Amino acid sequence: MKIRSYAGITKPSFLLVHPELPALTSRNPQFTSLFTLRIPCNREKLTGMITRSQYSVADRRSATRYGDSSVSNKNTNRLGPRQGGSSSLYSRPSLLDMKNDRMENRARVYEFLRGIGIVPDELDGLELPVTVEVMRERVDFLHKLGLTIEDLNNYPLVLGCSVKKNMIPVLDYLGKLGVRKSTFTEFLRRYPQVLHASVVIDLSPVVKYLQGMDIKPDDIPQVLERYPEVLGFKLEGTMSTSVAYLVGIGVARREIGGVLTRYPEILGMRVGRVIKPFVEYLEDLGIPRLGVARLIEKRPHILGFGLEERVKPNVQSLLEFCVRKESLASVVAQYPEIIGIDLKPKLLSQQSSLKSVIDLSPEEFGRVVEKMPQVVSLSDRPMMKHVDFLKNCGFSLEQVRKMVAGCPQLLALNLDIMKLSFDFFQTEMQRPLDDLVDFPAFFTYGLESTIKPRHKMVSKKGLKCSLGWLLNCSDEKFAQRMDYDTIEMEEMELLPSFDMNTLTEPRSDDSGSDYDDSDDDYV
């Protein structure tokens, strides 16, 4: 086969002929792509070959980019849509272009955040919205929840949470549990990380665990509102060990639900660093371990008193104000809050007030604190009213001082009830005032339930007894005394006192513990 005056490419199944092939000497070469296809074949394949051939020639002779307008436009027009697959490869943005676009978008988002007062420095590396509009939507949503710019600056990572994918599902779940919407603001200020959580993977298992600790479903919202950080704890970590330790020292298992409901912060306390040292310190003061367990059942918040920051300094203050070391256990057992308040200023204030009003000595003030440690929390005005009442009853200042030192509860009783009891003492019992000076605890007994019926029985029998013998005993003990013909002196108890054994009395409904009571397991 011979072809004259033609440039051609031969293949077994077709012949491509260019009747004219220019010298390509101009800066913008013009191609003539008229061709004759003598034997039909795969047209797409043929088109690709032509395109590659044309680009190859153009690249070698004109040294222009693939996007040169004269070459690109003409080839595109001639080949039409059949070349779309090849040309689209060159129309896609490069990785560098995409990176630059992302950087520009992030810069615009940062500029928006700075404009409203948010410092975005901590957001580097965090996936953010690509548009300012989406970021504005997130900020507006958080504002509607009550969070301020200051709150967002405290935890700017919350801006990485999607409104639809993260925030709304979490808040809907909390609402279904019963957490009040009015508490959402404070909830999120304390634990904004909850918005990153998965309801199914993170939140729901914690709620089920709390219910397994005998926290009632109706109390779950209260627990979460009080201590939202609990939603971020691991189930088999601090939560389980703290509960196990409490049960191990004697906290009744049936009380655990109530203890955690009233003070869920226990679930975040480390046994070795917080709970165990606190328990052991109270034991060193003289409170039996079971007694400590009973105190925790009644007032679980005492575990939150800082041992080094508050408890030990307060105990030292009690000693400085003449509270005897052997009485420290009784003081704490009667009023556990005394080791958790700002104590020293209160002690100074109360000592000064009682000194000025009834001339109470420092030693007597120490006895007052031992018998009624709550005196440190009484306000001056009510105390002065009680002192004035006693003076108006006819007691001298010296007698009032002795009565207060012997029964400091006189400074906190209901004045109306005290007046009724004193009227009965004067009109019915007709005893001298000295009897009240010797036994001021008379005012602490119920008039109708104790004083009147016992006085009637003693009068009927014709016995002459002290107020202490009459009142300072149980009903069973008093019934036995009514069988006596004479009053034995050893049974004439003067004043009631706190009995530490009341903390450790056995419970008939206690269940056995399945937890090991070994302290070595907690570090």
TrEMBL record:
Keyword Transcription regulation in annotation: yes
Gene3D superfamilies in the cross-refs: Transcription termination factor 3, mitochondrial
Position of the signal peptide: none
Polar residues: bias regions: 67-91
SMART domains referenced in this protein's UniProt entry, alphabetically: Mterf
Region annotation (Disordered) ranges: 61-93, 500-523
Keywords, in A-Z order: Transcription, Transcription regulation, Transcription termination, Transit peptide
Organism superkingdom: Eukaryota
Pfam families: mTERF
Compositional bias segments (type: Acidic residues): 511-523
UniProt family annotation: Belongs to the mTERF family.
Protein name: Uncharacterized protein LOC103333813
Species in which this protein is naturally found: Prunus mume
